[in-house]
Here is the input.
Amino acid sequence: MAEKDSKDPSSTSEEYDRMAPRWKVMNDVLGGTETMREARNTYIPQYPEETADLHEMRIKGATLMNTTEKTLNTLVGKPFSEMPGLSEDFSPEIEEKILPDADLLGNSWDVVCRHWFRSGIGKGLAHLLVDFPVLGAKEEGVARTLEDDRQEGVRPYWVVVDPESVIFASSEIVNGEEVLTQVRIKETVTKQVGFVNVTSQRIKVLYPGRVELWEPVKVKGKTSWQKTSDWVTGMDRIPMVTFYSRKEGFMLAKPPLLDLAYLNIAHWQSCADQRNILRVARFPILACTGADNGKNVVLGPFQVLSSEDSASKFYYVEHTGVAIAAGRQDLQDLEAQMSSYGAEFLKTKQTGNQTATGRALDASEESSDLASMVHIFEDAVAQVLDLTGEWMKIEAAGTVNFNTEWGIDDLTNQADLQVLQGARAVGDLSRKQFLTALKERDVLPSDFDFEANDTELAGEQADFLKTQTDLEPDLKPGDKPPAKTEPAPA
Here is the structure.
């Protein structure tokens, strides 16, 4: 690894370098089919001797079944299924002036928090900066006061900072508390120049009590970073809070859905191979023996194949279908694994046999993985409220609480059903047990009659065989109809 330049504000931290590959995987998968295709060789490498055209065909033939994004949206929706509650001692001033438009972009505080929570669950960690407009003195030589800010409606606002933007952060322990000492945030700025938009990068460097702005400047044909402005904040700390969904260390975390994303990638790769083999299998190769290789053979519905050699034969070389079935099974197995993955975040980890009722109770326990993340997030939001109150000179800002009560719902049902269907398909589960499981999960009505169902199925099969017997006079009742075969080509 190249040595970092101590004078370059764009230098990244070791923690950032370790997290970047994880974020790329999550961004690629969450980006969907389009992003995965743009990644090209990263996930669908080119085989030896495979032409560029065939490789391109394999890439374009794959479609992402984005279970990762679906699971993320479902998990994020749980704590926000109800409006978060405010504590009894919540600051009326913050509730009135901040919560309705927390980011000064028209988004209420719960919308901003949902964005922050989603980013933290998806990437393992995410940040929220309690920012404040940069203002000069009200009059020359006269400092601004809090009353000036209140009269002019100037107040702090919340900015969700995705983890990829915080390229560096350092901290130290002060009185047993981890305190940020420097944070560098890379920002993208777009300016209109004439009839086009010009995009550039800049870096905001935050210290306790002050902020510096660095921008790339060209000097004698070379681009270097230069400090273009700085200002004081009046805060004795950096007003940024980091939410860790699965913390591994300072600015280090494992995205909770990272393993699911890798399963999704495996499904993407299997899908590409399956599409490719189907394309090959659907076009059988015409082969012949005894024909003159020097002559062109024209194929078509109104063509006749002939050869002067009476021993010559024309025939199709077709795929047996074994690999197709194996590929289809691989896709189904991966889909079953992915479907059950998200449900684990809603359940407590217990051993032993459990009934459906027991599983429902487990899912509603606040010791589930997702509930634990929600409680961590509540603490993070409380810190944001404290920083907001500090900007506004409010001693007690208050706290919030999010919904952590959920039971076996659509996510868990879908996961269970996928596993049950897979077990039934491979013969590991009897039809009676399969139907019983469906009844327990309220997929079938409570008055479902197993015997009546068997009688109806037997009647349907008898009607089907009678129809086949009418079409096939030589077929006796109880016999299976012969498999349809295509006539051999001339």
User: Anything to note?
Assistant: Residues 389 and 397 are 6 Å apart (CA to CA). Confidence is low (pLDDT under 50) at residues 349-366, 483-490. The longest strand covers residues 177-193. The two ends are 67 Å apart (CA to CA).
